[in-house]
Structure formats: structure tokens, C-alpha cells
Amino acid sequence: MTDSMNTQSSSIRSLFLEGPAGKLEALVNAAGANATHAALVCHPHPLYGGTLHNKVVFHAMKALNHFGYPVLRFNFRGAGLSQGEHDHGNGETDDVRMALDWLDREFHLPMIFAGFSFGAAVGLRVGCPDARVKAVIGLGLPVDAIGDRVYEFEFLHDCTKPKLFVSGDRDQFGPRTKLEKVVAELPEPKKLVIVAGADHFFEGRLREMREAIETWIQATLP
Predict the structure, then answer these.
(1) CB 221, CB 134: distance < 8 Å
(2) 169: which DSSP letter?
């Protein structure tokens, strides 16, 4: 881990994390005085423009930071200023693991994982079995094939921690019927929120997505 490279404001710190494939560009939003959890938010597919600045990732961060949680966002290997090369979701699980380790060392708080699309498919694999992660959030879960990319979610069948899934009813990569079937087969506790009129990127419906996260956190976490 390197020192902060610069300070964008009093509440956001820009830094580089020492990742398994090189330095990873990151931003961390500051903790409130009485923070009970720390959070990690992972971005969508980097080969299709996904970065830590993605709008869905930003709004998820705002929802989590609303409760005073410090929130870490980072660019996967090969994205933005992060070193390394895209590894088709394989090495990226190591990036997620490293980010959780950093959060744990920095804040010593129980953690929440949130990921959007590719970030959810990759990060849930790490967050679900990690005992330090107390709850997980999947946004725009890509349950349908995206080109030649097919994501499998059988591993979620062993995930007994609180789970929130938020998707749009027009999500082209997460058809409602298929998503409902995936979630129905998962153990409790779980919640699925379908945002009316929203596509995969929640275009024009980001406020509703953010409110779904905030409402669930309020009801689920102490």
C-alpha cells in the first residue's frame, strides 16, 4: 500500500493499493465518527468502459457512505491507472481480496461488499465466503450471457449472510424471470428489488437504486 497520492477533498482520498498484479488506483470516502462498518464497491467490466467512476458505483458508494461507512472503490487490474492486464475475472478475484484486506487493516470494522455487473459476479465470489464480510449487494447481476461471457452463480447457494439484489425490469443482461429464479434458490436472508423502468445501468433510475440500498441497510444492519 502506498501513501495517499493527493487529497481531492476533506472526505475523499486518492491512493494506490499494492495489488497482486501491480498498483491499483483507488478512492476511499472517509468514515463517519461512529462508523459501524466499512464497505467495498466494485465496478463493471473494464473492457467495456467500466471504472470506479461508473455512475452506478458512485451512487452505491453514496448510499453506503450515507451511513458513515468508509467506502473503498478501486480500478481492477488494467483499468484506469491500475497496472496489470485484464484477466477475465480470474485474477480480479485476487484484486477484490486485496481490497478487503486493505479495508480490514485500515478500519478494523466488519465489512459490506457491493458490486455492479462484472464487479458483482467477481466480487461476490470473494465476499460471500469471507467471514469479515457481513452482508453483500449485487447490482445488475448478469445472470444472462453477455456475448461470450457466461457467469455462474451456484456459489451463492452457500451464502447465508444477508444478500440484496437490485436490478431493473428492463435489464438486458438480467431478465427478470431468470433473475427471480436465481434468487429464489438462494438461502435466506435475501431480498430482491426490481426497479421499474430501469435498464442494466439504471439510466434515469439511479435514485431508486440508491434508495433501495439505503432502505435495506437500515432494515438489515445494526
Answers:
(1) yes
(2) T
| 66, three cell numbers | 450515507
Beta bridge mates, 16: 25
Query: How many structural domains is the chain composed of?
Result: 1
Under a CB-based contact definition with an 8 Å cutoff, are residues 112 and 134 in contact?
Answer: yes
Looking up residue 75, the CATH number of its domain turns out to be: 3.40.50.1820
Which pLDDT value is given to residue 147? 61
Encoded amino acid at 137, one letter: I
Longest dimension (CA), the chain: 46
For residues 106 and 133, the answer to whether their CB atoms sit within 8 Å is: no
Query: Does the reported pTM lie above 0.70?
Result: yes
SS3 103: helix
Q: Which three cell numbers stand for residue 154?
A: 451456484
d(CA 136, CA 93) in angstroms, rounded, equals 15
